[in-house]
Amino acid sequence: MSAALRLSFQELPPTFFVRVRVMDPIEEKDLTAYVRRFLRRLRRRKCEYFSVTEWHEGLRHHHILIRTDVDLSPAKVAELWQASCGDVRTTSYCRPVRSAEATARYLVKDVKAWWKKELPPAEFRGKLFTKSKHFLARPLKNLMREVVAEWRLKAAKCHNQPGNAATS
Fold it and tell me: For the chain, what is the mean pLDDT?
């Protein structure tokens, strides 16, 4: 997934990295509804997005990559997130993307730090990621196929190099 995102970001890089979470105990279905409202608010503001559901110490939150032409401030993100959640206490984070490649790796936990990876609870039945229609350069399925084809080509070149034990 990280390789497919990085491939897409060569053409359509994200402009902002956002994290949203709820601080009060709520039902899973309510959090899902809040995130859906927040993403709808982003779409109305002409933002394209890729949202990933993540857990930290058993608590669910969402990382969202956004591509937009408008300046998206931390205060604006906080306002939109709070409006999506009603009277529940919330927190959010927003910053411009400095490295699309590093952000793609972090977003899907393509990192060496095993302690930064937490699996969804076994009872979770929701989506782990969602995206707006035009966030990716091409459909994810096509990007994944391109990545696999590139890996196979590299493996074949490596396998056929002179002096390689497999070819000797």
Answer: 86
Q: Identify whether 153 is part of a domain.
A: no
Position 130 scores a pLDDT of: 87
Pair of tokens at residue 59: 């608590």
Of 128, 137, 131, 107, whose CA–CA distance to 43 is shortest?
131
- Cβ neighbours of residue 49 under 8 Å, at least 6 residues apart? 39, 42, 43, 64, 65, 66, 67, 131, 132, 135
Q: What CATH number does residue 16 fall under? A: 3.30.70.1910
Give the torsion through C-alpha atoms of 99, 104, 106, 108, to 10 deg. Answer: 170
Lowest mean pLDDT among 21-30, 111-120, 142-151: 111-120
pLDDT of residue 121: 62
Residue 151 maps to a domain: no
Q: Tell me the C-alpha distance between 121 and 19, whole Å.
A: 20
**Mean pLDDT value of segment 88-115:** 86
How many structural domains is the chain composed of? Answer: 1
Q: Is residue 70 domain-resident? A: yes
Domain range enclosing 127? 2-137
